[in-house]
Structure formats: structure tokens, C-alpha cells
Amino acid sequence: MMIPERPSLERRVLAALDGSPGGGTRIPVVLGGCGSGRTSLLLRLRDLIGRSSAQYVDVERIATTPERFLKSMRDASPFPPVPYGHVDAVETGARGAFDAALAFLDTARGSADAPATFLLDEFLELRTFESFPGLRSVLRDLLSALSSSGNRFVLTTRYAARAHRLLRDAPSQFEIIPVAPLTPAEVRATLPAVRASRTPSGSIVDEDDRARDELARLVHAISDGRPSYARMLAEASTSLSSRDAVDPVSALTALLSPSGTIATACRFSYELRLHRARGYGALKAILDVLAEEEPLTLTEIALRLRRTPGSTKDYLSWLEDVDLIVAKQKRYSFADPMMRLWVRMHAHNSPPTDEDITREVHAYVLTRLPQGEPALALAGAEAGAGEREKPWGIIEID
């Protein structure tokens, strides 16, 4: 299922493409982690702009060789062919094929000779071409070509740190747009009715909007506002309902089992980012250390890792480069709290037991509750006077 629509984000990107009076059009660079909805955004923009005027390009899938990249992009194009389209990329080699791809992006036109719009998903994957002869500055060549083109472009990537570094000295047309976490209201908009009944006239109405609001706040807190986690939690909470109520804590427990969808998503992001970084084994060790305790200083991590501060600093910088960790006031922690929970449970010699998952999930949920919420205790604790049991397996203490 697609990530929910983000109208405010769409409007901001379209405003950048249209430009401000006297300011000219800009090139939005949308930054968001795995499951943040970057691809859904581009596909939605393609429909809003018009499929005859915009081309979606999944760079991550087709950036194999420059020649095949050019052919894939040309073959899927909705734009009329132009003279350079007949160049034999095999004969021109890697450099010639990449130059032809840049020319295609620059000179393709929509209907009535209108500017074409290209939606380049995970554009940093073009960096793989830098291993070919004559291609040592692919990404900078790309930025230069796009900034001088009369066409319109939207770029996305999951690697925020690398994008910021690349764009530090880029032309002023490029505008970084981070994908913000979902708000509780946006989470609520994705929820089905918590409890519903049929009116005398036969229509369906919510019996308890307040329960829906509370569920949205809890799903938002547990998911850290991350769209894919929120969507999976919302769907599983309703499908695993009991007593005509929903249960996001039990849903998260199921989703983080070895075959659960959140566990699968975390594994994908974990492995993908580690394989894009250097020092694979040592980086996993640091993530294990931070899963046990965070935040930690460089010295504390080095002691636990039994490595020198110098080598540990390198490892930490490589983890920051792929956005697996963040540093605040010289203390390091996971960028994604759900990823940390997954590492705590799954980075061991044996798969976690049901008891392990239940214990870790409940501990995680209690740390994610919004500030100012009433004190909460785990389900199964003996209720005392004045306690009200919530449908999602947590007891609220007055």
C-alpha cells in the first residue's frame, strides 16, 4: 500500500518548481529515510503534473551501466524523440552514454514544446557510474547540467548527510526539502473508525472519536511519526483488534517478530545502509553497542568496542554518512528509534523468543509515550482502585 498523501509537501515541491515572482524556478531535493514516502510523492507529482509532461525515473533500479541507464530512460520516456536519441550508446562508450543522458534530461520537451519535468528518485545512485573510465565527477556533472537546463527537476534520496555535503557548493537553484514526520492529525486521517455502529437510518458512525484520537496519538508516538511505520501500525492495530477495540502494542509485537513487516523493513534499511558504508563488521558492532545503551560519547564507545578513539571516530563518521546514527553534543545515538529496537532484539546468535519481543516492545512503548501523559503500566499488572484499562493493553493509573 502507498504511503498516505502529503498535500503540504506536494504544494511546497510544486511551488519550488513554479518559482517565485522574479526568483525563477528551483530544483527541489527531497530528503527522507526508508519508508518516508519519497517514491509515493514523486508518483503523485507525476499524476498532478500530467504523465505526458512528467517522467518518473527510478535511478536506483536502472543505474547499472551508463549505456543501459540511457536506454532505459529513453525507452520509458513520454516525450517525443529528438536527434541525439539515435546515438549508438554502445559505440560512444560510458562517457558518451552519460553525456547523452544529460543531453536527454536537458533538451527533452513536452507537448507544444513545453519544458519537461523529470522526477529522479534516489539520484545519488548515479555515483555508481564513477567506477567507469572517464566518469570521475558524475554527480557534480549532473548538478551542473540540471542547473543550466530549461527543464524542471525533482530529486530525492534517502541519504541526507551525503546530499547535504554534495549540495554545499551547488548552484543556488537547488532547494533542500526534508520530509517531516507525520503529525498526530495526519496519522489520525489514515485510521479507520476505532468503533462504529449503525444509526437507525442505516449509516455508519463512529461511536468513540476520542478513542480514535488517543489511538492516533499512540501510533504517532510509537512510530516516531515515520510514515511507513505509522501505516503498518495503523493497519495491524485494526486487523488484530479484540473486544471490538484496537491494540497497537500487540500490533507492534507482531510486526517486530522475525517475519513481521516492520522487522523486514528495518532489516532492509539496516543492510542497505551498511552496504553503502565502509567497515561493515565494525559498524555493526557499534550499532550493537548503541542498542544496549545510548547516547554514548566517542570514548565510551571506543572502550566498549576495544578500539582506539581514532579508529572509532572513523567508524562513527561512516555511520553518520549513511544516516544510521546522529550526534548531539558529542553523544551518539540511533537516528531511528525503531531501528534500535530491532537491533536490540534481532542482532543476536538466536532469534528472539516471544517473551523477548513482548518485553522489549513494552519497554520501548513506555519510553515513547508523549511527555505529560498519565503514568502507564504494562498490561497484566494487577489493577488497583481507580485504574482504567485501555483497549491496547496498557493500564492508565490515576
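^ that was protein a. below is b, sequence first then the C-alpha cells
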Amino acid sequence: MSAFVDRIAAAPVTWGVDGSPGWGLILPRDRVVEEMKSLGLSAMELGPDGFLPSDPEELNAYLSENGLRVIGGWVPMAMAFQDLFDADVDYLHRACRQFQLAGADVLILGPVWDLLGYEKRGFLVVGEWATFFANLSVVDEVASSFGLRTALHQHVGTVVEDMSDLQRVLDNSDVSLCVDTGHMMSTGIDPVAVVTQAADRVAHVHLKDVQVRLANMVLSGETPFRTACLDGLFQPLGKGDVDLAGVISTLEAAGYAGWYTIEQDCSLSEIPPPGTGPVEDCAISLDYLKELAASNFVSTSTLKAAHDKH
């Protein structure tokens, strides 16, 4: 099994790159890639459709030029609503082809309501769940045909949001999971409990740290998700309240050999000077994970206290 620190990647959304309408300013891809490389990272997620080259051959050439590999990426699909799902099947195939040629491992499936953002809250009815699970099988078959493992991502503002939604998925399918520590905390889910219960289902991990105060405001509906992001919902790793050591140590003990992606959802209202802004936060997160590994995953609270002294 590769060492933990060799399985750390980053996602473009850590630099504010998100495909949701009105999310924020988008940094040029070359800047994002150069800043990732400046931190010593050699693996990244694809980012929203069109951020990196959409043509699979062009993408592969771009990655080779920059010494990077794509390990997977977020693919939003409205699986509970047949018309919306059917409209994006071609995109699903193209994304899988991109991942395959780039040497990726997983398709990170976003079970969205629609493609308009993450503010919608609601519950699927029985018939919609039936459509969801039927289309989940379709996605898994397509991904498997390209040599990819489907990792379903529980997420704020999607149809798989709280623990009851996630438990329904675990109980009624064999799909693998992308565990996102921040989105779980933001919907009242304990990520340590999830990885303890279902370590064998975990195919990918998004590491986020969260201010619980803001997470509770999102959970109650008091604050919209993007507003909370602007207010600092997601913090550099080690600066929030997530038991990251508990999540990682549980997974490592269970034999998890997949990737850990630093993913601090960020929304930019202005472009920071080069070398500042998101890259500084990602550097803090990366240093924290290296300290965590060197400490053999001691308790997050103990390491956080030591880290804050520096």
C-alpha cells in the first residue's frame, strides 16, 4: 500500500473552481495547475466540465506536459428525474472516457436535484427513489465499462444529503462511496461513524475541515450553502472541528488504499494576487496532513493545538 502522503491530491474547487451558476470568479486553469505543482502535488481531480480540456486526447497531452495525473472527478447527474438524466448520458460517457485515458480510478457521482446549484432542500418520494436506483445501476455499468469505480458523493443540496438518505443508499445498493468529511458534518452526519460502519464501501475521500457553528446554520436552513462558504464554512485542514485523524486512521486500519483529496470548497469574489489566496490555504492543509501522518494520526485536537502554536 502506498504511503498516506503519496495518496494526497487536490481539487480545483479548493481554488474556487466550481461549475455551479453564480458560484464565483474562476481562476485560469494554468494558474491553478501551476500552484498545485508549486506545492509538490502530482495528482488532481478533473474539476467542472470544461475547466481542463474536454477532448480526452488533448487532456492527456496537457496533463503529461504538466506532470500531473487526474485521479477522478465530480460528475453531477440528476438520477431521480429521468428526463434530466437522459439529457446528460452523453456527458457521462465523455467524462468516463476522459477519466479512462487520464488513468483515473473513480467517477465521483454527484446525485444532484438539477444543475442549478446546491441550495435546494427536499425529499424524494418512493417513485423517485426507484428511478434513482435504476439510474444508479446505469451509471455504475457505464463507469465499469471504462474501468472505473463509481463513488457516490453525499453532498449538501443534493438528493443524498442527510444520514437517512445515505443509509437508504447503503441498504439498497452496493455502490461505493466518496466520503466528504465537510459535507457530512454540514448535514449532521458523523464521518467517523460512516467510515467505521462502511469502510469497505469507501472508494474515495474528500478531506475538508468545517466550522461547526456555520455548519449548523446550513443544517438549520438559516444560512445558504454558498453564503456559508463565503463566510468560511470550510477551513484549511486542522483549523476546524472535524475529527480528521479519526477518519483517516479508521480507513487506513481497514486497508483503504485510495486517494485523499484536499477539497476546501472556496468561492472567490475577487482574484487574489499570484501566490496568495487558495494556494496558501492548500499549503496549510498539506502541511497539516504531513504532520498528521508523522504523528501516526494522533487525535486531531492534540495535533491542532500543536499546529496552532507555529
